[in-house]
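Long-time lurker, first post. I've been practising inverse folding by hand and with some scripts of my own, and I keep getting stuck on stretches where the structure tokens seem ambiguous. Below is the full token string for one chain I'm working on. Before anyone asks, I'm not after the true native sequence, just a reasonable design that respects the backbone. If someone could post their per-position residues I'd love to compare against what I wrote down in my notebook.
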């Protein structure tokens, strides 16, 4: 899926309006069902990231891939602003100064061979039993993580041992992301940073292991779990 410029602008506008409505009136944004068109009607997951002064201020998502993108967007925007357990809720006073980024997630596909996972291109979902965690590709991009380090971080985020991804009972899925953000103070148009390269089974990316690094991930990747109401724990954050 590739969103048009107008669809991106609408999603960013609706995300901000959802937060404004929740802060001002304590209610969920109601969008005219006849207004959305095109790709925003499709069933997609989504994450909303809020930054203030270039620093993370919240990031949560809705990964129900059987709901329309727009419905997931409204829920994700409100959760990011008000329910990310790592940060205090956004206030009406600070909302005008923060910047929103929307990451639209394609439906995940099974990852049969972890060696084919490129963490800078695809997001990852790790599941084992009732534990589950998700990482967006921008996490590995920003931190310079390789495949093994990213998989270990996802396991730790799910409350699993760092090598749980090697367990035959673990389920690994990858997904593609289309991310875009609001203009900065200079008034630039939203810039997309798509990660949409298909897997290349014949040329797996190299897997490197860095001694001593995985153990240090627990402090950086461990985030409080938030119940989803669906029998799974969800970790707040990208």
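-- Answer (accepted) --
I ran through it position by position. Result:
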């Amino acid at each position: 899926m590739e969103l048009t410029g107008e669809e991106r602008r609408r999603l960013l506008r609706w995300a901000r309006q959802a937060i404004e409505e929740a802060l001002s009136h304590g209610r969920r944004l109601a969008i005219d069902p006849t207004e959305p068109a095109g790709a925003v009607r499709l069933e997609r997951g989504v994450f909303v990231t809020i930054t203030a002064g270039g620093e993370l201020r919240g990031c949560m998502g809705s990964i129900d891939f059987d709901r329309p993108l727009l419905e997931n967007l409204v829920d994700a925007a409100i959760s990011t602003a008000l329910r990310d357990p790592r940060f205090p809720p956004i206030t009406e006073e600070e909302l005008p100064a923060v910047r929103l980024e929307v990451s639209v997630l394609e439906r995940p596909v099974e990852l049969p061979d972890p060696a084919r996972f490129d963490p800078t291109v695809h997001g990852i979902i790790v599941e084992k039993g009732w534990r589950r965690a998700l990482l967006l590709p921008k996490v590995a991009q920003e931190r310079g993580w390789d495949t093994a380090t990213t998989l270990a971080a996802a396991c730790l985020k799910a409350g699993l041992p760092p090598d749980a991804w090697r367990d035959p009972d673990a389920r690994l899925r990858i997904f593609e992301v289309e991310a875009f953000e609001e203009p900065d103070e200079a008034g630039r148009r939203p810039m997309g940073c798509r990660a949409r390269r298909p897997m290349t089974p014949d040329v797996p990316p190299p897997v490197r292991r860095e001694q001593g690094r995985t153990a240090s991930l627990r402090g950086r990747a461990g985030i409080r779990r938030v119940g989803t109401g669906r029998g799974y724990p969800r970790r707040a954050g990208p």
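A couple of notes from the structure itself: The helical segments are 5-25, 69-82, 137-143, 147-157, 217-221. The chain has two domains: 1-106+176-198, 108-175. Happy to go over any region you disagree with.
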